Amino acid sequence: MASYSMGDLKKGLKIEIDGIPFKIVEYQHVKPGKGPAFVRIKIKSFIDGKVLEKTFHAGDKCEAPNLEDKKMQYLYDDGENCQFMDTETYEQVAISDEDVGEAKKWMLDGMMVNVLFHNGKAIGVEVPQVVELKIVETAPNFKGDTQGSNKKPATLETGAVVQIPFHVLEGEVIRVDTVRGEYIEKANK
């Protein structure tokens, strides 16, 4: 396994500390007036999403995590776990609702997603940044409501709720940014 020293660290790098995989989200090289330089980083855990602050000095080392991304198909939610299938090997993997996290509100049965594995164990799910979903419930359109920046809530077929413009109606398919949880536009269908 690759090993990283203080000089190798940078924003976006994936590292492993005490058996837990992290991603560096903030990086700062500090050169004080007295004493040796050091690196202060903020790292986000792939396991529980917690952000920690850590300081690296010359000679400190950390490992590269054994992470693997696999494209898998979301099958269904059995109440406790979400079931995914590798479309090449037909191997199925169950991931707890807690580990799936926020991604769950954007997933439809049959959707292709990225499943992140650490040392062979599934630890997270990443949905595409833009998904197309059908509106199953929203307030009706009223005359004069088409102008301005006013928005109304809409429930999507996955159960997620987003704010949409008044001219968008129930039954229409829209494009949604899953990172920000916002309406982008009507889908061309």
UniProtKB/TrEMBL annotation:
One of its GO terms (molecular function) is translation elongation factor activity. It comes from Campylobacter aviculae. GO terms for cellular component: cytosol. Involved in peptide bond synthesis. Stimulates efficient translation and peptide-bond synthesis on native or reconstituted 70S ribosomes in vitro. Probably functions indirectly by altering the affinity of the ribosome for aminoacyl-tRNA, thus increasing their reactivity as acceptors for peptidyl transferase. PANTHER family: ELONGATION FACTOR P, ELONGATION FACTOR P (EF-P) FAMILY PROTEIN. HAMAP family: EF_P (MF_00141). Keywords: Cytoplasm, Elongation factor, Protein biosynthesis. This is Elongation factor P. Belongs to the elongation factor P family. GO terms for biological process: peptide biosynthetic process. Pathway: Protein biosynthesis; polypeptide chain elongation. Residues 131-186 form the Elongation factor P C-terminal domain.
